[in-house]
């Protein structure tokens, strides 16, 4: 259930992932490229550019989707109890807010160093890789619950642990995707299938 704009709530940042390269490309049956530990304790976010060190940082084609936020409550933990960001290839895993219900809104996340604002542009659709990395049935289980792709609207740091989540502005229509993001259509710059 969403809350009105401006009402902050306590959440927890459970995991943060920064990956310099694509791990999911090609066919899921071939498996991911390498198994590095890309989980970190903190990330540096820059306005309109993304997460410093991430594969989508300052990539024009991915400006609308430079950061992906996901809710742990939506992970199919019944399929794989250890599922997390390494399996989904999202960047920020939160507990305490169903981020998918805020699609089209602008939100902020403050883990103690000041708020970082994000425009929640579009859904992060699960792909066939989820059945490989999490387990059979995960792609279906994550449908409409796979997180949101965002544009950072301010600079800042996000760290693991307690954080404050606030809605800065709601979408014009409940659940509607914004028609334009910084002068471009919301669908522009979508990631190619299988590239995470």
Question: Can you tell me about this structure?
Answer:
This protein has 196 residues and is mostly beta strands. Helices cover 7% and strands 30% of the residues. It has three helices and twelve strands; from the N terminus they run ββββαβββααβββββ. The chain has helices spanning 85-88, 129-133, 138-141, and strands at 9-16, 42-46, 50-51, 67-71, 92-95, 106-110, 116-123, 148-152, 156-159, 161-169, 180-181, 184-185. The strands form three sheets. A seven-stranded mixed beta barrel has the order 1-5-4-8-7-6-10. The protein has a three-stranded antiparallel beta sheet with strand order 3-2-9, with no helix packed on it. Strand 6 (106-110) and strand 7 form a beta hairpin. The two termini are 28 Å apart. Residues 174-196 have low confidence and may be disordered.
Keywords for this entry:
196 residues, mainly beta, 3 helices, 12 strands, disordered C terminus
Task: Work out the number of β strands.
Answer: 12
How far apart lie the N and C ends? 28 Å
Q: Report the order of strands and helices.
A: EEEEHEEEHHEEEEE
Percent range for β-strand residues: 25-35%
Computed Rg: 15 Å
Helix content: under 10%
**Biggest sheet record:** 7 strands, mixed, barrel
| Strand order, sheet with most strands | 1-5-4-8-7-6-10
Low-confidence stretches: 174-196
What global shape is seen? globular
Overall pLDDT, averaged? 80
Count of separate DSSP helical elements: 3
The structural class is mainly beta
């Amino acid at each position: 259930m969403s809350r009105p704009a401006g009402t902050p709530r306590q959440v927890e940042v459970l995991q943060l992932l920064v990956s310099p390269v694509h791990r999911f490309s090609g066919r899921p049956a071939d498996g991911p490229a390498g198994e590095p530990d890309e989980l970190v304790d903190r990330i540096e976010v820059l306005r309109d550019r993304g997460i410093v060190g991430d594969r989508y940082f300052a990539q024009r084609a991915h400006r609308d989707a430079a950061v992906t936020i996901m809710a742990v409550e939506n992970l199919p933990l019944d399929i794989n109890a250890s599922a997390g960001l390494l399996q989904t290839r999202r960047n920020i895993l939160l507990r305490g807010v169903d981020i998918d219900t805020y699609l089209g809104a602008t939100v902020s996340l403050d883990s103690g160093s000041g708020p970082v604002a994000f425009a929640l542009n579009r859904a992060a659709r699960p792909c066939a890789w989820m059945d490989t990395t999490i387990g059979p049935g995960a792609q279906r289980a994550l449908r409409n619950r796979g997180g949101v792709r965002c544009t950072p609207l301010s600079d800042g740091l996000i760290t693991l642990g307690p954080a404050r989540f606030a809605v800065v502005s709601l979408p014009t229509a409940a659940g509607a995707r914004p028609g334009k993001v910084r002068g471009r259509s919301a669908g522009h710059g979508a990631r190619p299938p299988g590239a995470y």
